[in-house]
Amino acid sequence: MTEHTVRAFTEELEALGADLTRMGGFSEQALGDAVTAIARRDANLARIVIEGDKKIDVLQREIERKIMRLLALRQPMGRDLRQTVAALKLAGELERIGDLAKNIAKRALNIQEFEPIALTRSVERMGKIAVKQLKQILDTLTSQIVAGAVSVWMQDEELDEHYNSLFRELLTYMMEDPRMIGPGAHLLFVAKNIERIGDHCTNMAEVIYYLETGEDIGTDRPKAVDAALPPISLPPPATA
User: Fold this and answer.
1) How many folded domains does the chain comprise?
2) Which domain holds residue 92?
3) What is the model's pTM?
4) Per-chain mean pLDDT for the chain
């Protein structure tokens, strides 16, 4: 490649990264607002999330268009190829997170028809965990510190445990009081959407790990650092 071609290629990759960062910001905002809309029974905020999903969809299509053009014209290799394919996968994961945030916002509108129930706070706590995981994986994408991806990958079980516990509690509520069936069902769907968002964060962690190392992170999510993985300096656990 000539110096001009290399510079143009680098600029295209940087623009792609900037678009992906913007898309991540939109998705993070949507998720945070959707959780807030549920917790505060804020119908206006829920409608903002639903309407804002269009921005995420438009940006995903723009990213896909740029990637197809880049693959066709530049034929990247090595890390450049990994970076291009990773951007395509990450855009897809972020679009799904945006869709799930929109679904949560729609439930926030539906739940307005019922009296508040105490377990809404448990759903809010679960939602905040998902927001934290998404923020962490987006920070990892920007910093390119692979330990952050491993950390998110290993946290997936936390959301699963919250979901299972909340599922049992909501079912108990609905069995004991038929009036709880309506709001309880909506909260069950919200909790499931949050749990799925955690799965998408885990998928993103796997993509980022591969991007930075050229290796798969593994098949079974570990409960501790797997000795088979390349040596990684994990960040210290967060303090309360």
Assistant:
1) 1
2) 3-213
3) 0.85
4) 86
**C-alpha distance from residue 134 to each of 176, 179, 181, 216 (Å):** 35, 34, 31, 20
What are the tokens at 189? 């769907």
Phi/psi-derived region of residue 75, left when phi > 0, alpha when psi is between -120 and 50, beta in every other case:
left
Residue 136 forms part of a structural domain? yes
pLDDT band at 3 (very low <50, low <70, confident <90, very high): low
Query: Would 25 be classed as within a structural domain?
Result: yes
Single out the residue of 118, 105, 109 nearest to residue 197, CA to CA.
Answer: 105
* Residue 74, domain member (yes or no): yes
29: CATH: 1.20.58.220
pLDDT in tens, 8-26: 778 888 889 899 999 999 9
Residues 14-43, mean pLDDT to the nearest whole number = 95
Cα 124 to the center of its chain, rounded Å: 16
Tell whether 100 is covered by a domain. Answer: yes
User: Hey, which bits of the chain come out as E strands?
Assistant: none
Residue 123 in contact with residue 191, Cβ under 8 Å? Answer: yes
- For the chain, the first-to-last Cα distance in angstroms comes to 52
Amino acid at 198: G
**The one-letter amino acid at 109:** L
Please determine, for residue 226, whether its predicted confidence score (pLDDT) is greater than 70: no
Burial of 1 (0-12, 13-18, 19+ CB in 10 A): exposed
Which pLDDT score is estimated for 105? 97
Residue among 158, 157, 150, 160 at smallest CA distance from 205: 150
Question: 57-68, pLDDT tens digit by residue?
Answer: 999 999 999 999
